[in-house]
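A reminder from the course coordinator: this example appears on the midterm review sheet, so study it carefully.

Given structure:
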């Protein structure tokens, strides 16, 4: 499910995650128009693609759709990270390189996360 997003896809998803409620194409368009000129049909097409990619769900509301995120931004990011790790070829080496590049703040966040969810703590 975790696929790379284009610039407009990312902008729309950021908006959807930020508002944390179902939204129409018009709702998203009004926000996007604050920073640029963009056509309704462009936003509609991109939101349809995000639905096809499994990032947005939708329900019919008259002649339009109301869209909602399928998962949180954090869950999406975790999916992208796992997909990248799976495609790396050498997971251990990739993880070592990742850890080498962590900032002190990121290392602290990782330590805190491991306290909440220790390795091997997953129940099946």
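Designed residues:
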């Amino acid at each position: 499910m975790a696929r790379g997003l284009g610039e407009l896809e990312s902008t729309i998803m950021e908006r959807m995650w930020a508002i944390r409620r179902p939204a129409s194409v018009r709702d998203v368009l009004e926000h996007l128009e604050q920073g640029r000129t963009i056509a309704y049909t462009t936003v509609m097409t991109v939101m349809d693609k995000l639905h096809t990619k499994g990032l947005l769900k939708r329900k019919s509301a008259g002649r339009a759709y109301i869209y909602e995120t399928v998962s949180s931004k954090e869950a999406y990011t975790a999916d992208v990270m796992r997909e990248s790790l799976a495609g790396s070829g050498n997971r251990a080496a990739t993880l070592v390189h990742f850890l080498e590049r962590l900032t002190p703040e990121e290392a602290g966040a990782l330590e805190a996360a491991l306290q909440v969810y220790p390795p091997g703590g997953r129940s099946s």
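The chain has a mean pLDDT of 90. The CA atoms of residues 26 and 40 lie 7 Å apart.
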